[in-house]
Amino acid sequence: MTLRTTTDKSTGVALLTLDRPEKLNAIDLPMAEQLTSYWQELRYDDSVRAVVVTGAGERAFCTGLDRDAAGAVPQPNSPYTIEDPLLRIGPKSNDCWKPLIAAVNGMACGGAFYLLGESEFLVADPSATFFDPHTTYGMVSAFESILMAQRMPYGEAVRMALLGTAERMSARRAHEVGLVSEVTEPGGAVAAAVRCAEVIAGHSPEAVEGTVRACWAAREATRAHALAYAPHLITLGNQPQARQGELFAARRKGGHRTR
User: Which InterPro entries does this UniProt record tie to the protein (predicted)?
Assistant: First the structure.
């Protein structure tokens, strides 16, 4: 299994762990399917009232879609649609309105933003770094940029998207711009997120889910309108798979800086 879940029945808090540390918790197709199934099943599980998501190991929360998985997904010929296995890995895209808190450790990049974008708020270890590699590898950052532009100032979201792997946003900077709500002591992100989740899970589930839905509705209209453009932009702007592979293979030749 590439997804690990534990639930504390006494508090109503579930801990969801992306468990591919040897692959920096990159999401392959089985993990994507497990995430979709998890949120769909959670809609009917009244014993869980709040969820914390994190990544196994110390190096990464999640590094997006596994490159092998990306090459295994056939794409439609039409420029009006794409086949994206990450579109339903988050709770809201599966009509699940139980609150999700992300405990970010290490790298969070690319497709990780699908999960972070559907989290209520982020708690980060000081080691956490955020970046978006798409442009470096000849790909359009569409869904990721749309989600991040709703979580931080426009200029910060665009800077992250355009600089690609050349720059990583530190946990400190992410807190300054509002992407992260709390930076913990080293190694304390999961515990801090669980403490928040326990408080939330102690409130009325109906009140909590209604509040989540209300907050989401405040930005959903803009989000839906923006996401409608994403397939066209990706189809028109992505480099061919072979060229993406060349750029990916050359990624270690350049450095990056963290701010």
Answer: ClpP/crotonase-like_dom_sf, Enoyl-CoA_hydra/iso
Identify whether 47 is part of a domain.
Answer: yes
Pair 124, 174: CB distance under 8 Å: yes
At residue 220, the pLDDT reads 73
Structure tokens at 188: 């304390």
The set of residues, in sequence order, having a beta carbon less than 8 Å from that of 218 and lying 6+ positions away, is none
What CATH number does the domain containing 67 carry?
Answer: 3.90.226.10
- Cβ pair 53, 197 in contact under 8 A: no
Note the pTM of the prediction, 2 decimals: 0.87
Q: Helix H segments across the chain?
A: 29-42, 67-72, 112-117, 143-149, 154-163, 171-177, 189-201, 205-227, 230-237, 241-249
SS3 (DSSP) at 34? helix
Mean pLDDT, range 78-106, rounded to an integer: 92
